[in-house]
Amino acid sequence: MNNPWFRLYSRVMTDPKIEVLSFDDQRHFVWVLCMKNEGYIDEIFPSVEAREKMVSRKLGLQGEAFEAAKKRLLDVGLIDKNWQPFRWNDLQFVSDSSKSRTRKYRINKNKPENVTVSERHSDVTVTVQNRTDTDTEQNRTENTPCTTHTASSICPHQEILSLYHEVLHELPRHLDWTGKRASALKARWLEDPNRQTIEWWRGFFEYIRRSDFLMGRVEPTPGRKLFRATLEWIVTKTMFERIREGNYHDGVTA
Prior knowledge:
Strands 1-2 form a two-stranded antiparallel ribbon. It is mainly α. It has helices at about 15-20, 25-40, 50-60, 65-75, 90, 100-110, 135-140, 155-165, 180-190, 200-210, 230-235, 235-245, and strands spanning about 115-120, 125-130. The longest helix has 16 residues, at about 25-40.
């Protein structure tokens, strides 16, 4: 990338992968992002050892401390074995290039200035100015969080995951939220417009909290392990319906 800067989203504060790291490792990860943006990570090295030596020097870590820091970042799924940060291309846009923005500005400067238009965003009508940004509508939508009071057809996975960790903090944490897990949550979100607000999910999680069985407060029968619900289990279609029907709350429905 030719930019002297890169996108770092505010949701990094509540990202469960970041939250489990120490302050020092959080700094190490940000340094990895800086190295990626500067092109150091993508250089062609004569050997794996040469790359490791470069990263070690940039992080200011040596020996066992360096290896341990790398393992911790690997374990939470922030980097791969070659120090490449996951989802980098999903979060950094071509339109961030200063050349791209300048070109777009020149194209748009001859258009009517400050034309106000009404644009439909999910289920909410908003008023916006003519854009000179080249981000696609998909990029804007995927990175626009659902507000706490607004219904949206875009499932805010990270907000719901963070809310789960906040309200149901005694339950197992999820360090990875992709694939079937994400698909199941998205399906539950889309099934009913009433569920398409953060307030609904907070109420749902607080309802779950009142269940001794789901929270792991019920002693298991001999020979069986103590059960505690996970978000992955909660949002599967069958379990989700059973919870809402009151199967684990003495008949009190959500």
